[in-house]
């Protein structure tokens, strides 16, 4: 994702209160030059809480350090499917040791992009982390690039597990299957883009009580910020766009979205 690193101002949409960015990689190097300013802009935009999921064991220490310094940041730890080859032999033990300080296990999942590691190895790594989440009674944050069907089949074997499929872009049938298994659907800036007609139509039929909102910053900017580095303050734009799509009052929608997020992660917040 290209970004220009500019010092973006607070979005011009009317402010909403109590927003929760359910997926933001605020520990990423893209935020190194101005991370404190980014956090302040998020606060100015009405963001109260930000969930920061890990993606590589190499970055677990910096994520832990960042969240210990900022009370509005909540960590999740896991191994993203694109980073499974970066794991040391004792990675699972390291992960377990961090999870008593985490709100979730994530970002974990499956990825069928061209550069992705061996699929069988991805499945094995995912299942180990799902078992760990189940054992510790933690929700999971799932990545599913071109793998929603495969992921749904795997989740059938993990009764009682809960979580969110982040950056959801599937069909209504796929959404209902996930909801029936207790999984929330994370929506970000993707649905605001002009060509996302099918996704917008799907969103209009989703059960509202199973939707979370996210930025996935520094990536996946909304249409209004195309070409810019994404950041948590831009969640305000996404919530207003979703309110327009669902024909709801923005503050009423914001309240429901926050309740959804707190319901999923409440035991650790």
TrEMBL record:
Which Pfam families does the record match to this protein? TatD_DNase (PF01026)
Q: Which E.C. number(s) belong to this protein?
A: 3.1.-.-
- Residues that coordinate or bind a divalent metal cation 2: 143, 166
Task: Give any Gene Ontology cellular component.
Answer: cytosol
MF terms (GO), sorted A to Z: hydrolase activity, acting on ester bonds; metal ion binding
Identify the residues that bind a divalent metal cation 1.
23, 25, 107, 216
Q: Which UniProt keywords apply?
A: Hydrolase, Metal-binding
Similarity comment: family membership: Belongs to the metallo-dependent hydrolases superfamily. TatD-type hydrolase family.
**Entry protein name:** Putative metal-dependent hydrolase YjjV
**Species for this entry:** Acidithiobacillus thiooxidans ATCC 19377
Q: What is the lineage of its organism?
A: Bacteria, Pseudomonadati, Pseudomonadota, Acidithiobacillia, Acidithiobacillales
């Amino acid at each position: 994702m290209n970004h220009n690193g500019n010092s973006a101002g607070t979005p011009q949409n009317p402010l909403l209160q109590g927003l929760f960015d359910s997926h933001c990689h605020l520990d990423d190097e893209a935020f190194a030059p101005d991370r404190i300013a980014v956090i302040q802009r998020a606060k100015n935009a009405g963001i109260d809480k930000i969930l920061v999921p890990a993606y590589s064991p190499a970055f677990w220490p910096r994520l832990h350090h960042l969240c210990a310094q900022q009370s509005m940041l909540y960590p999740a730890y896991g191994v993203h499917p694109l980073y499974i080859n970066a794991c040391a032999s004792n990675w699972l033990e390291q992960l377990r040791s961090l999870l008593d300080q985490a709100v979730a296990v994530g970002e974990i999942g499956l990825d069928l992009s061209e550069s992705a590691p061996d699929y069988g190895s991805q499945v094995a790594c995912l299942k180990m982390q799902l078992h760990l989440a189940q054992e510790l009674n933690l929700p999971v944050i799932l990545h599913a690039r071109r793998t929603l069907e495969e992921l749904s089949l795997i989740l059938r074997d993990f009764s009682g597990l809960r979580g969110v499929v982040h950056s959801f872009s599937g069909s209504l049938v796929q959404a209902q299957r996930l909801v029936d298994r207790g999984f929330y659907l994370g929506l970000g800036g993707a649905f605001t883009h002009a060509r996302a007609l099918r996704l917008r139509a799907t969103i209009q039929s989703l059960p509202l009580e199973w939707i979370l909102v996210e930025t996935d910053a520094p990536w996946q900017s909304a249409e209004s910020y195309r070409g810019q580095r994404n950041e948590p303050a831009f969640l305000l734009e996404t919530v207003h766009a979703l309110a327009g799509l669902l024909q709801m009052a923005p503050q009423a929608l914001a309240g429901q979205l926050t309740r959804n997020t707190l319901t999923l992660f409440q035991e650790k917040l």
